[in-house]
Amino acid sequence: MAHDCEGGSGLVFLDMEGPWSYPVDNLRARHTDRRNARLSHSPYQEPAFKDKDVIPRLTTKRVLCVTFFFLLAIASRPVLSIAEEMLPETEKVFGKYSDRVVKIQVVEKESGAKAVIGSGFFVDPDGTIVTNYHVISKLILHPDRYRAELVEPAGTVRALSVKNVDVINDLALIQAEVRGVTFFRIAAREPQQGTRLYSMGFPQDIGLSIVEGTYNGLMKHALYRKIHFTAPINPGMSGGPTINASGEVVGVNVSSRGQAISFLVPADAVTRLMNLADTGKKGPQNFLEDIRNQIFAHQEVFFSDDLIRSGQTVRIGHYRLPGQLSSFFKCWGDSSHQENSSYQSVDHRCSTDDYIYISGEHSSGIIRFSHRLITSDEMNPFRFNHLYSESFKSSGHYMAGNEEEVTKFQCKSGTVKRGEIVFKTAFCARGYRKLRGLYDVVFKAAVLSSENSGLETELDISGVSFEKAVVLTKGYLEMITWEK
Amino acid sequence: MGKIVFVELLDRRGNIRGRVKVDSFPAMVGRGYANAVIVDDRFVDPEHLRLSVDAEGAIVVEDLNTLNGTRVQKSRQRIDRHRIPSGGEAVLRVGQTVLRLRGDDFAVRPAAPSRTLFEPFGRCMENAALASVAFVLGLGINILTFAQAIDKKVIWSDLTGMSLVLLIVFALWTGFWSFLNRLVAHSFRFMTHLGISGIASVVLVTLFTVREYVEFLLSAPLGAQVFGYTGFTVIFSLLLYAHLSVMMESSGRKRLLASTLISAGIVGIVLLTHSAYKKEFSNELRFSSVMKPLGRQWVKTVSPKEFFGDVDKLRARIDAMAQEGPKEKKVNAP
């Protein structure tokens, strides 16, 4: 079935099963023709067969004429199909499905100017749209300052409201006040690696675009499930669908890295979010509560209390230290032996490769740690300790955030003795203002050593409960041992 | 026995530039060479004042109808006649000269105790050789401190550069005080001020080293900070006091008060700036980080349990900060 969009904006959404594909600008005219063609089948032919009185009036000429047109109609169909088959696949997909993709903008209320541009797509006939959480995060965090709008091709805007969010998978369900729209189906199974997929969205706000690329499976060793899609997805396409040739959504555009490495949220996450019971109209506080609960639930699964104790270790100098804790950590190492330097250093860093987006400046769910062994044969102990102190003085954490979202860091310094090892330690934490109960933590420790050799290590955890942070930090400190 | 009067010529700051004993009256004061007291001031008449002693033994000063007149110091009123009772004094302005008149019966104050703690020290610094040693010591200890902070292999170029910078700092500081000294007391006393600067820099470096050890051994960054700021205030006050003592001849108590106020003011400004900086929101973290090669066995340590127990207390502070609510930036409608 075909439907006009409510409000008479002129936008016509095609039925998902429509056998024809047309260029977007001719949609209305061709669609009307096709609808008429479809309708002409059953209701008018039935009386012709029942009413026997009419048959004797058929002349041979008329029969031949009807037969000719009947044959012509049958013959024309494959001809048209062949013509259509000859169109490039991308053009066909775009023509067929582009009207299910929408532009979403988040507008700053005072100035009336857009603050964020993203993409989305319909997933049911009642105007439910899927997009990324990060597209509408400002609306969730500052509902008094922003509003979300759907921008139609003609430029008219419609108000949008948030239905549900899944911050772990960076998804949001939003509602547009339209009915009977054409929508995407969600793919039931993952495609084969190498399958050609099509991503749609509004890159840089320069109009709806389609990008062709290949499915390369789920990201390996990732903390959050993401599809590796090889195609150049650009800002503004976030929240747009990536579909297969049959028009089924395989993933939701979410991020990119490098030239053509892009990532999609898998379709099953969309299905899960859609299947969540509709708990009625929610206020901004409910969404914050949901986000907090999602993060807590997630950290219970992935950041278990034994995460550090049960992980692999690495040996640097005489020290054994936490190494690759699990498959979703990536570790890197390097050493420095500069000609003009009077010391040498060995560095080892591990980090979860992904994070949970909370706001433009603020992310959560990252664990990073780094070790650095500094040694010097040339320096006197005073010079070496000065170097060691300077190296320890600052943190290498990458946590962003602003005053609206997080408190300032509060620190506790001390000298901790565990067995034979004495550590200079600093534990700093800050709390999330909107998502109460979540904290960022930076822990730094340096081994006090009488030789011209020192080990310092730093653990950064973002977006976890305080208890979890303390448990992980304790485990981290316990894992540092000295070996002969 | 006849009356004796002393006429003293004072400079603008009240220092005595000359003293004349007058024991026969009447005596004349003026620019002329026939006077008992000659005042070399072109605004003074050749015969300006007449000094005499009345029947009660009081000194009487009479203006001899002069062009610019005679005034009692700190008064604009011209006087024709001024009587100084027995045991008293008068400070008079004639032309641009200040004269102080005292009789031999003027009661002086008893002897003051040795003026300052620094008097022997100041006298030592009068000795150019000792002052040079103090300066070299100060320069050396500073260069040594900076040398500890260099982590490159070849450090001679850094040391030379740093020494030059230190020399300039010493020269500017000492030059400033010498210049002030010249303005106030008509002499530079450069070496004395240089010696004082050298000794002060040694004491300051020692203070900062002790402060670092306090932080390292006691694991008490706040205590070390209080110690550092207090120590700096005291040492800087004493430094200013020493420079002022060399330069001025005013009361020791006033100098000490002024030095302490200036020093406290400087530390106050530093603390205010530091506190304003700390109030600013920042994602940057700086830790207390002092580590030393000596005295590890005396470092105050805690067990991991105690440390993480204290860490739990942080949470209440952070939660209270978060409770204050998000600091929304209000945007005014255009």
Distance between the termini of chain B: 95 Å
Tell me the CATH topology of the largest domain in chain A. Thrombin, subunit H
Number of domains of chain A: 3
C-alpha geometry of chain B: elongated
End-to-end separation of chain A in angstroms reads: 77 Å
The largest pleated sheet of chain A is described as: 7 strands, antiparallel
Q: How do the strands of the widest beta sheet of chain B line up side by side? A: 2-1-10-9-7
Strand percent estimate of chain A: 35-45%
| Strand element count of chain A | 27
Show the largest interface: A-B, 72 and 53 residues
| Oligomer state of the chains in this structure | heterodimer
Helix proportion of chain A? 10-25%
Low-confidence stretches of chain A: 1-56
Structural class of chain A comes to: alpha+beta
Major sheet characteristics of chain B: 5 strands, antiparallel
Structural class of chain B: alpha+beta
Q: Order the strands across the largest sheet of chain A as they lie in space.
A: 18-19-22-26-25-24-23
Task: Please describe the structure with a list of short key phrases separated by commas or semicolons.
heterodimer, A: 484 residues, alpha+beta, Thrombin, subunit H, Protein Transport Mog1p, Chain A, 3 domains, seven-stranded antiparallel sheet, six-stranded antiparallel barrel, 9 helices, elongated, B: 334 residues, Tumour Suppressor Smad4, 2 domains, five-stranded antiparallel sheet, five-stranded mixed sheet, 10 strands, 49% helix
